[in-house]
Write a structure and sequence with these properties.
Elements lengths: L5 E5 L5 E2 L15 E5 L3 H18 L15 E2 L4 H7 L3 E2 L3 E6 L5 H14 L4 E5 L4 H10 L8 E4 L3 H11 L3 E5 L16 H18 L2 E7 L11 H5 L2 E6 L6 E9 L7 E7 L2 E4 L18 E8 L2 E13 L6 E4 L3 H15 L6 E7 L11 H13 L7 E3 L2 E2 L5 E2 L4 H10 L4 E5 L15 E5 L2 H9 L2
Parallel strand pairs: 6-10, 6-11, 7-8, 7-9, 9-10, 17-18, 19-22, 22-23
Antiparallel strand pairs: 1-2, 1-3, 4-5, 11-12, 12-13, 13-14, 15-16, 16-18, 20-21
Bound molecules: thymidine-5'-diphosphate and magnesium ion (MG).
The site of magnesium ion has 4 residues, from helix 3.
Length: 461
């Protein structure tokens, strides 16, 4: 096969040059030229015109109301927590991108899922570019899958993977990982932006053409984003992130984009000696066990997807040097700086000369602002060296003016706290239940409007 010519296209202005340059000759931007396969000039044009003509002759317009909305057929993987994140199961021709730190358990989970699907009678394929077949077999032993019928292919060349997909027509294929796959058409190294983008585009097209559901495993950068261009996330139907502290055994899998289901839904797993096991009732796993309350700890109820979970927020405030540090694990650092300013201005709690560290226990990452109140109470508690009362929870967003704003679905959060035996809750006024409800029995609820109010309420407890 003759090699298609490659060109370098500017990701900013779209201009292309035949060779790589540091600066785009058209828009003068630096480092924006990315290698791509050139569309063969005349032939491509002809293909396009004939395509359009073909379309004009054959396609009719249909009113939206006349299109039948068929339900998407999903095949559950059998791993309930993964299905939850996927929105019910794998979809024919659907493309899933799954990212996460090295060693978090991506290969383990996908091998388990493939085996479960294979047992249901689906044709499955596991393409490994990172490990040899023998290494995959070793892992499968550990998982108790030594008799697995899953087909394994150790291959990194895109063209070979594509022809296998077309020939074997598996119903689901895992590509582990997209960064190792390379196309002959491009000269850039495997893992480069150009290669990842091109290979993902071809695989996505193959998924749509053959009906094979494809799962792409993606590496993450040091900052925690999926390596490779953003366009990867646009191309696929579902983006899942695997997160968790490698030192704790719990792992969360979170949907951040899903064309076939809800986003922010999370599945919870525990890494065991024999692979990942789903945790069906995760509400209390992110609490550390203190016999007696300790200073700097406040429990909040976070609601990710459809399930409320209790998470402990810890803070340590300690006298710092000339430029005090603000560090957060599992919470947004910019938001922490903002909350410290609000604490100072509206509640008179000054941490200017202090180091402030905050941590969401168990490696969970909390992105919702409903954590604000708990973060601020934990910081104040640590600064004063005074623990919050036993059985205490708090949640609510705090604004720059010091107002406490409601969290979505507050009553569900409160119900979960009551169910787990918590006794005192400080929550935004709008989240407090109106009537006495049996579901909140045993929970004394203090509704607050402002941060000062929350502080004085806690002081009085
Ligand atoms: P792996 O799936 O290889 O991670 P990834 O593909 O995301 O890089 O997981 C590797 C880690 O999981 C490794 O540190 C060992 C651990 N592990 C277990 O604890 N139990 C098991 O049964 C397996 C297979 C792995
Ligand atoms: Mg792996």
């Amino acid at each position: 096969m003759a090699k298609d010519k490659t060109v370098f296209t500017c990701s900013d202005c779209g201009a292309s040059t035949p060779r790589w340059l540091g600066k785009c000759p058209s828009c003068d931007a630096w480092n924006t030229l990315i290698e791509s396969v050139a569309e063969g000039g005349g032939a491509a044009k002809n293909r396009y015109t004939s395509q359009f003509q073909g379309l004009a002759q054959t396609s009719a317009l249909i009113k939206l109301k006349d299109i039948e909305a068929t339900d998407i057929d999903r095949t559950p993987t059998g791993l309930d927590e993964l299905d939850r994140a996927l929105g019910g199961g794998v979809v024919e021709g659907g493309v899933v991108l799954i990212g996460g730190d090295p060693g978090i358990g991506k290969s383990t989970l996908l091998l388990q899922a493939l085996d479960a699907l294979q047992r249901k009678g689906l044709r499955t394929l596991y393409v490994t570019g990172e490990e040899s077949g023998a290494q995959v077999a070793l892992r499968s032993r550990r998982l108790g899958l030594e008799r697995s019928e899953v087909q394994v292919m150790a291959e990194i060349q895109l063209e070979k993977i594509l022809s296998t997909l077309h020939k074997e027509r598996p119903q689901i294929a895992v590509i582990d990982s997209i960064q190792t796959v390379y196309s002959d058409q491009l000269t850039s190294a495997p893992g480069s932006v150009a290669q990842v983008r091109e290979c993902a585009a071809h695989l996505t097209r193959a998924a749509k053409a053959t009906g094979t559901a494809i799962v792409l495993v993606g590496h993450v950068t040091k900052e925690g984003a999926l390596a490779g261009p953003r366009v990867l996330e646009h191309m696929v139907d579902t983006v899942l992130y695997f997160e968790g502290d490698t030192h704790s055994s719990f792992r969360l899998i979170r949907a951040i984009k899903n064309r076939f289901g809800a986003v922010n839904e999370i599945g919870v797993f525990a890494m065991t000696e024999r692979g990942l096991k789903g945790v069906s009732n995760p509400s209390a796993i992110f609490l550390s066990q203190h016999e007696e309350p300790v200073a700097g700890s406040c429990v909040m109820v976070t609601l990710e997807g459809t399930r409320p979970m209790l998470v402990e927020i810890q803070a340590l405030v300690d006298s710092g040097g000339p430029s005090p540090r603000r560090l957060s694990v599992g919470l947004d650092r910019d938001r922490l700086a903002m909350l410290l300013a609000v604490l100072h201005r509206h509640a008179g709690v000054a941490c200017m000369d202090q180091d402030v560290f905050v941590n969401a226990v168990g490696g969970v990452r909390i992105s919702e602002p409903a954590a604000d109140l708990a973060v601020m109470l934990a910081i104040t508690s640590s600064l004063r060296g005074k623990p919050l009362p036993k059985g205490f929870i708090a949640f609510g967003e705090v604004g720059l003016a010091g107002e406490v704003r409601p969290a979505p679905r507050g009553q569900e959060r409160l119900k979960e706290a009551a169910k787990l035996g918590f006794t005192v809750a400080v929550v935004p006024k709008a989240n407090a239940p109106k009537k006495s409800d049996k579901a909140f029995a045993g929970l004394t609820i203090y509704p607050v409007d402002r941060i000062e109010e929350a502080m004085s309420c806690v002081r009085g407890l």
